[in-house]
Amino acid sequence: MSIVEVNNAKKFYSLGKTTVEAVKGVSFQIDQGDFISIAGPSGSGKSTILNMIGLIDTPTDGEVFIQGTPVSKLKDREITRLRHETIGFIFQSFNLIPVLTARENIEFPLLLGKANKLTKERKEYIDFLIDEVGLSDRQKNRPNELSGGQRQRVAIARALVTKPVIVLADEPTANLDSATGDAILQLMKKINRDLKTTFIFSTHDAKIVELADHIIRLKDGLVTENYKRQGA
Amino acid sequence: MGTIFTIALRNLTQHKAKTLIVGILIVVSISLGLVGNTLLDSARNSLENTFTRNFTGDVLVLPKDVQGGVFGASQGDNASSGPPILPMMKDYDKAAALVKDQPEVGAWTSQISSYVLVNFQDDGISFGLTFGIEPENYFKTFDNVTMVEGRKLEPGETGIMLHERVRDAFKKDPGVTVKVGDTIQLNNFGESGFKIREVKVVGIFKFKAGNERTFSFMQPNFVDVNTLRALKGKAITTPEDLKLKESVQQAFNASSDDFFDSPSVVAAPQGKTTAQSVGQSLGPRKTDRATTDRGAWNYILIHLKPGVDEKTFTASLNKKLEDAGLNVKAQNWFPSAQPDSGVFWAISLVFNIVVWLIAIVSVIIIMNTLVASVMERTAEIGTMRALGAQKGYVRSMFIVETLTITAVFGAAGVVLGFLLLGLIGITGIAAPNDFMKLIFGGDVLRPVLSLGPMLTALFIIFFIALVSWILPVRLALKVSPLKAINAD
Q1: What are the chain A neighbours of B380 within 8 Å (beta carbons)?
Q2: Tally of structural domains, chain A
Q3: Distance between CA atoms of B12 and A192, rounded to whole angstroms?
């Protein structure tokens, strides 16, 4: 069963009297455990599609299904809950909360929603993630005391802390140097392998595309290519 | 919830400049409100104490259609049309009997008030407020004067006690000095025309509480009630009064020839025409106690026993007066002390408007600062929403921030207010002039903290806290998770 299904999704924006057709009707499915790259040039609609899958934007027409649930009819509260329970985000600009330490940033999603207590099990999992992303000695530092790579590692740990089935990463290496970017990608690939977490990237970074086992290429708001690598 | 507090507190400490600007505004609003309201409250209490102890009593009973009190009043639609001509209480005897029967009444007396022209030897003239009293009963109810010279009026005596400032006002006329034992003339133009009475000055006094009203003519003098009644046309005519003077009688008895045979029937007045000489043709200058209407009073002034609630008593007395069908009403000191209390009320009003304006300006500045803070933090808010924070979480975060800043700086404002009040309490504020003496209700104002100003300060804190977060939170709730993506 596919974990994400995008069915003839369209997204139009009004810019004054002009209507911009960002996504003109795309359909695809994503399976659990995929390491998928949505690639394409700037303006191709890849970020818009990622936002729709991440439930932070809604299609003008068409439907997005998350684990079989059509999201267009959900209320804001239900969408927020589904997003919290199902999806993790890794942003291009890291988007850490500046007044919280690295560890507090990682803990933050666990403190939202109904089950918002830091149990022993959860604390151990946070320790595991901090270890996994290599930030054991920086966990008490605030974001402005961390390098770009370290911030992105915090963001990865934060995206994984709720054990989401999907992690969305919008240009995750765009603000990192090449070596750090490679290390981050390897880390995400390892987590994908070990935890069977689905990673969906929006990128035009060739290295990510190379590493992905499912590639969707976009151009001018339409899918031009959608294939899985052999053995994926 | 813990993380909400953490984020709120760290945001406040991180943005120190903004927090301080907002905080200082809150401190100023609260401390100014607390100090100002306490001073006004203390002045009001002092004023109330002065007036109830010296002039109005706790409760004043007066004709129903009269507005005002012991310092001047108007009747019906005649408000402010010239010097007040106060009506006597029509149902005085019944009202007095009812007052006497009330167990809450500690002491009571009656009084007439009138502005009269005070004339001394045709050379000195002054306009003054005069209280007509029965001295024994009055000074038993109001132990309010200190004699500077002479003595108080004796029961049944005809005479006047002049306020020292009225006496001093005469000194401004060259060579005029009024002393105890001198006779002065009181002139009044009232309902029954122009009246003149001569009275002896028995004493010069000042008020114990030091409440000096603004101008000398506002200082009350005490005259025996019958003299004032006579001046107000409340003399009862007796057959003796109707006897014509011998010369006038002769004129009536004369034949027509007499008018032409003698140089004059009645000798023309010799020398200059004076107020005194004119006064001779206007009626008797001495007051006979037996010839005045002994039931003619303007007011009944009541002192309540300690612990009696004035509001409850006034309401209850009004009900009883109403039930008895009497055309009189009971009121507390405030309307009874008009226009003095009105001046104080106006000043209080202006001060409160200023305090609330400062509070409103503070709210606007705080709101703007918080709005700017929301705008700066849209990416952060968007990220929180993207990570699964419901709108309620964002709302709580900003409310906690606003409440924290308001509570912390509001408390600081209260503490600063206490300190300032403590300092003012030690030194006291000396009234620089008579006007301020009126406002302070005495020579020196010492603030006494009471519940009212504390509650006002708390109300201002709640007002600021409640109103200032509305707009910023509304804006914060509109922040979409998409803002997280667009952060760069």
Answers
A1: 95, 97-98
A2: 1
A3: 39
Q: What is the ipTM of this complex?
A: 0.90
Number of residues that this document lists for chain A: 232
Cα B94 from chain centroid? 29
* B488 contacts A111? CB cut-off 8 A: no
Taking only the tens place, the pLDDT of each residue in A57-113 is: 889 999 999 999 999 889 989 999 999 999 999 888 888 999 999 999 999 999 887
Tokens of B376: 């700066």
- Tell me the chain A residues in contact with residue B484 when contact means C-beta distances shorter than 8 Å: 56, 89, 91, 95
* CATH number of the structural domain spanning residue A26: 3.40.50.300
The mean per-residue pLDDT over the stretch B86-90 comes to 76
Most confident of A203-212, B21-30, B378-387, B448-457: B378-387
Domain span holding position A10: 2-228
Q: Which two tokens stand for residue B359?
A: 């509070």
Q: For chain B, what are the domain ranges?
A: 2-50+342-485, 65-239+286-326, 242-283
Q: Is the pLDDT of residue B377 over 60?
A: yes
Element spanning B145, H or E: strand B145-150
Using an 8 Å CB-CB cutoff, list chain B residues near A200: none
- Chain-chain contact of B3 with A56 (C-beta, under 8 angstroms): no
Question: Residue B388 in 3-state DSSP?
Answer: coil
Q: In chain A, what residues touch B379 (CB-CB under 8 Å)?
A: 93, 95
Residue B484 is nearest to which of A91, A111, A162, comparing CB atoms?
A91
Whether B290 shows a pLDDT value over 60: the answer reads: no
Given CB atoms, is A84 within the 8 Å cutoff of chain B? yes
Q: For residue A143, is the peptide bond before it cis, meaning its omega torsion is within 30 degrees of 0? A: no
Measured between CA atoms, how close is B461 to chain A, in angstroms? Answer: 27
